[in-house]
Amino acid sequence: MTAPENRVIPASNFTRFLEAIMAEQPVIGPRERPDQPGFYRFGRLARAEDFAPDYGTTTVPPKKTFAALREKLFSFTLDSPPELDLHFDSSPFVLLGIHPCDLSGIDALDHAYSQPPAEVRWTANRRRASLIGLDCRPDSYCFCTQVGTESNRNPCDLFLTPMEDGYLVEVHSDAGAALLEKADTRKAGEEDEAAAEQWRREKAAGIVPEFDAPVEKIADILEVGGLTPVWKETADRCYSCGSCNTTCPTCFCFDMVDDIEPDLSGGARYRTWDSCQLLDFALVASGHNFRGERWQRVRHRWQRKFLYLYRQFDRPYCTGCGRCSRACTADINLVDVANRLIAAAQKEA
Amino acid sequence: MAEPAKNQAVDRTRIFYVPERARVMTTRQEPSATFVELGFEDGRPLNHHPGQFVQVSVFGYGEAPISVCSSPTRPESFALCVQSMGNVSRAIADLTPGDWVGIRGPYGRGCFPIDRMKNKDVLLIAGGIGMAPLRGLIQFICDNRDDYGRFMVVYGAKTPSDILFREETEQWTENPDLDFYRTVDEPDDEWEGRTGVVTEPLKEIDIDPENTIAAACGPPVMFRFIAMDLLKKKLPEERIYFSLERRFKCGIGKCGHCQLNDLYVCQDGPVFRYADLLKRTEAGEVWAPEKDQDTA
């Protein structure tokens, strides 16, 4: 499609726009947790007013919409022969209010999961959804500018930049254009564009943490190695709790488990998130653990995010969202570790 | 013809995680393992390559990756040889004829190099349960004997009662198609064969290093010593193959459990060239223990 002009949707119209979408399909967006005021999570909006556009960063990234923490793959009976029943929902929905870093996380998993043979649950769930992005204000953990995701728009159908009264709307796909037809909008003028540009400038200026070397250098540093002291000192603090994996928008490892009905009539197989930081992640049947040392698991996470997947997909598997640092039970900060690695490499050289 | 047409209508890519039903045809208790012969409902062959594995579901217990121990040249059924190690393998070992399991696969793009081995001498080394995947290859080469040069198989078991495929291996001893060396680490009073670890008979074998391909499967601790012996025989690193064990959950390089540096063992292997493993620090099996693991 040709790049369409940007539109502006006033705040009052935006609520009506949401209501019009919600009349046709579910809308999943950031909403305040009733049990924890001040904390937000992606969930189905019951009313347009549930949308919390000023949310900071959710604890769990929106990847859960396409690959649930625990997802039923199929059910089975314990008859002879067993009967298998496939579970697959194909109804459409809208995912609203995704920050540029989280769009980048979805993009990362699009790449990883679509490698042939594709991970079918993710790819099929992705086809169900229209994505509406939303620009944000950083907190002290955010470092999107360091990985180049601060103005990421991929993959979204529409993108909203907050303005004094409403949003500037960028249209990024035909599906987005079709969705926007439900809204009462006006053409964006120069002033509107300037206001959005101002928002982006202030956002970038608000980023505090900095890598001491460009992110592409981290791959080289990891490849050369000689970083064992940094891995070990980081591992000395790490509890191997897996919070960094669970909250990471680009982590995609999983496990598969069976559950049985209490009456033993049958059961189901589930796909659940897993964590490479947990002790038994690389354990094999013979009892050998290929990453039995904690520092090996810490290193593995870094090599995966900043070396292997970086080389495979030409982008870091880090979105700069800062969730791992926010969630870390031992207060290990990703940017801090990155800078220790960079310092160690410079010392070597 | 109505039934097959209906089957074809099912989009298999959409139901990737859903296994196909297969039935247990025969089982046999080996002293330290269980042999299970399986067939698909519709009688179709598994169509695997030697070295590939399948994901076996025992519903209610879960799924486990098991290498296929039969040859595609004998397509009426396919077979597994399982040691009871975990929840699922114990359930597989408890199967009886007529029971149903689920099968996904075969998986693994890295198989034993049956084409590259053509017209070459082939040396196979099996340690313990590592005999299971190699048995499929041994059968394959025996069934295509004219395509291959000298054929040598070394098999080491812990004790005489740990020897898998006892009858079949006795036959291999007599079989002029292959030079078969069988050894045990811990002999009992009745044992009259060779004694010692698997590398002992290996030392005796003269190979033509210009014209030999070697493949090995066994416990991780074995690989390093086999590699050392083969290198002493001047066999180049790129003609030595190892079949690795990792925890495969998905089988298609997505779940992350089997990652070895930048490789997914399930998809890029499970059979790898030694030359490729040497570039990977996490291939702990082939590295000397003192080797610094901290380079990528």
Description:
The complex is a heterodimer of chains A (349) and B (296). Chain A has helices spanning 11-22, 100-114, 120-128, 144-147, 174-180, 190-205, 215-224, 228-237, 243-247, 294-313, 323-327, 334-348, and strands at residues 7-9, 27-33, 36-44, 70-77, 84-86, 93-98, 129-134, 158-163, 166-171, 186-187, 254-260, 266-273. In chain A, a hairpin with a 2-residue loop joins β2 (27-33) and β3 (36-44). Chain A contains twelve helices and twelve strands. In chain B, the strands form three sheets. Chain B has a seven-stranded mixed beta sheet, sandwiched between helices. In chain B, strands 4-3-6-1-2-5 form a six-stranded antiparallel beta sheet. The N and C termini of chain B lie far apart (55 Å). Chain B is built from eight helices and 15 strands. In chain B, β3 and β4 (62-67) form a beta hairpin. The interface between A and B is large, with 60 and 50 residues.
The tally of beta strands of chain A, per DSSP, is 12
Low-pLDDT stretches of chain B are 1-14
Largest interface: A-B, 60 and 50 residues
Classify the oligomer. heterodimer
Contiguous helical run count of chain A: 12
- Terminal Cα span of chain A: 49 Å
The number of helical segments of chain B is: 8
Summarize the amount of helix of chain A as a percent range. Answer: 25-40%
Strand content of chain B: 25-35%
Cα distance, first to last residue of chain B? 55 Å
How many separate structural domains of chain A? 2
Shape of chain A: globular
Low-confidence stretches of chain A: none
How many strands, what sense, and barrel or not for the largest sheet of chain A?
A: 8 strands, mixed
CATH superfamily of the largest domain in chain B: Nucleotide-binding domain of ferredoxin-NADP reductase (FNR) module
Task: Please tell me how large the radius of gyration of chain A is.
Answer: 22 Å
Rg of chain B (CA only): 19 Å
